[in-house]
Every structure is written in C-alpha cells, then in structure tokens.
Amino acid sequence: MNAMLENPRDPRPRDLLGRPLHDLRVSVIETCNYRCPYCMPEGSTPEETALDRARRLSFVEIEATVRAFVRVGAGKIRLTGGEPLLRKNLPVLVARLAAIPGVEDLALTTNGSLLAAQAQALRDAGLHRITVSLDALDPAIFRTLSGGRGEVADVLAGIAAAESAGFSAIKLNCVVQRGINEDQVLPLVERFRGSGHVLRFIEYMDVGTCNGWRRDAVVPSRELRDRISERWPLQAVSPSYRGEVASRHAFVDGAGEIGFVSSVSEPFCGDCHRARLSADGRLFTCLFASQGHDLRSALADGEDALATRVAELWRGRSDRYSEQRSAAATRPGKKIEMYFIGG
Predict the structure, then answer these.
(1) Spatial contact of 243 and 271, defined as CB atoms under 8 Å apart
(2) 202 has which bridge partners?
(3) 78: domain CATH number?
(4) Domain assignment of residue 4, yes or no
C-alpha cells in the first residue's frame, strides 16, 4: 500500500507500508535506577550518553511536541524512560498532557520501584493506565535481573499503591529468558490470576547492542502458552484493536487473561503504528532503529511546523526490522539502546 493513498476521511499520515500513526511513546528521562541485563547492563552506559537537564526536553517542550503528534493522529500517549518516575515532578507533566484535547489514552511504563510514593499523585493528575515491569517473584532472581539494585517487595508495594489509587487492570510485563527466569512464569500466573491485572510475557529481544542477545535465550511465546495452558487452560481472545502488540488469551475458568508479545517468533511489524520520542527530542520510527530524527528545530518553529515535520517523516517510514531479523544484511550495525526510547 502506498502512503500517498491515504483515506481523505482519516487525517492520520500513513507510511510507505500503509500504516497510520496512532501511538506515541515519550521517554521523559534516559537514566534508570536498575541495571537490568536485557536493557541497561551494568557498565553499558558511556558517560557521554547521559543527558544533562539542558539537553532533555522540558515539560513545556514535551507538551508542545505531544500536541503536534496528536494533531496528526497519535491519540495514545505512553510515558517511558529510562525509569520515568526518576523525572522530578512527573505528575505536573501528566496533568498537562491529560488536558490536551485528542489524548484518548495516557499511560505510564515503570519498573515500579518508586511507584508506591507517587501512584496517588499520578492518578490525581489524570494518568489513565500503568504498566509495571516484573520479571520475577523470587527475591534473589529479581535482584539479579535488576542488576543487584532492586527489591521485588518494593514493586509489589507499588502495585498495591496503584490499586489503592484507583488504577485497575494494571499490565505486568515479564521479559522471559531461557535458563534465567523461565521458572518464574507459573508463579507469576498463579499470583495474579483473578486479580484483574494482565500479565504479559515478552520474548527477549535484540534491542540495542549492549544486552548480549542470543536467539537461543529466547523462549517462544507458543512454548509459554502451552506450559501455562497445561495448568490453567487458555483460549484465544480477539484483539481489542488492529495493531495490538500482545496476543490475548483468557483463562477458561474466567480468572482473567494474559498476553504474549512475540516480536521474535511471530513478528507484527505489518501493523506497527508506534512512534518514539527520546528524552532529547529525537523521533524514532522503530524500536530497533539505528538513528532518530531531531525535532528540536521544527519545535522551535512552532506547533504547525512540528506537526508538518512529523507527518513528513512518518510518510517516509518503511521500518519492519523484526520481519527482516533473519537477513543479516538488513540489520543495522548499531541500534539505539532501549533505555533511550522505552520499550
């Protein structure tokens, strides 16, 4: 499908594969208090990659940028990092973004370690949804997977605080690695079945260049589905919308549902409609991109100029890395690290 063949009734720009812009993920900070091996391993962050405050977008700039993206169709906004709760006064930004006409969904992805103290303020500011990363329930395994910096009790306290603040159907993301935490899958399911929250098991991906990714460390989603279904029978559920990242499965006994994100074994690039904004104002049109497009100059020219620039960049997009992963010639030599643009 050619991007020029856009539906006149749909103002959203379409890329070269006919995919509309719908979601924007905004990294508010590039630093993190964890050192998860699959994202930001200890010693993997050269000092020159850290941003000082002057290089990060201000709240005013983030709001203006989100307004421009909303004008060209991005009604779903997700705040990411790094660890976004490290950004001071984040509820202030949430309130500004929640007030933008056209923002249909405003969400946050966090490691949960700082959530207990901020959940109520985030809810009061207008945040709609929360996703928490939770790779293990076993304290020792969790500590290892956070690079020795995290305690699972803090994350569970954050989830409880989010519940008390009124957040429902919290999404819980678990990145599964062969021989590392695959034995945590059933305990996680047992813990959160019937809670109203949604566990999502994510295949270990080759994001960035510092996580030492190996294909044999990937546990395919179909293997996890079979393992879980042997204990608690599952049935497939239709997607909520086209381009939904996770394939949905419900427990036959009615105890809720879980999801599987299968970027490696079952790539879904064909329906990808997500853009990513880095903390320093660069647009990345793919999670696996090698470089981004600086939006600061267009931002300086005003919202109209920025909206025009975003639409122009999106129309030139042809990314489908996950579908091309097996072809070595198509792999970028160096990819942006996930902690710069979120998941």
Answers:
(1) yes
(2) 175, 261
(3) 3.20.20.70
(4) no
Q: Report d(CA 50, CA 123) in Å as an integer.
A: 29
Alpha-carbon distance of 106 to 113, in angstroms, equals 20
Q: What is the DSSP letter of 57?
A: P
| Span 323-343, pLDDT tens digits | 556 554 445 556 666 666 766
Provide φ and ψ at 293, rounded to 5°: -110, 120
User: Would you state the structure tokens that stand for residue 155, as one six-digit string?
Assistant: 């994350």
Per the domain annotation, does 181 fall within a domain? yes
Counting the structural domains of the chain, the total is 1
Is the pLDDT at 15 greater than 70? The verdict is yes
Greatest Cα-to-Cα distance within the chain, rounded to the nearest angstrom: 58
- Let me know if residue 151 belongs to a domain: yes
**CA 44/CA 46 separation, integer angstroms:** 6
Edge-to-edge strands, sheet with 247-251? 234-237, 247-251, 257-261, 198-203, 171-176, 129-133, 105-110, 76-80, 23-27, 274-277, 282-284, 293-294
Q: How confident is the model at residue 48 (pLDDT cuts 50, 70, 90)?
A: very low
Number of C-beta neighbours around residue 191 at 10 A: 16
Please report whether residue 208 resides in a domain.
Answer: yes
Determine contact, residues 335/208, Cβ cutoff 8 Å. Answer: yes
Domain range spanning residue 131? Answer: 23-341
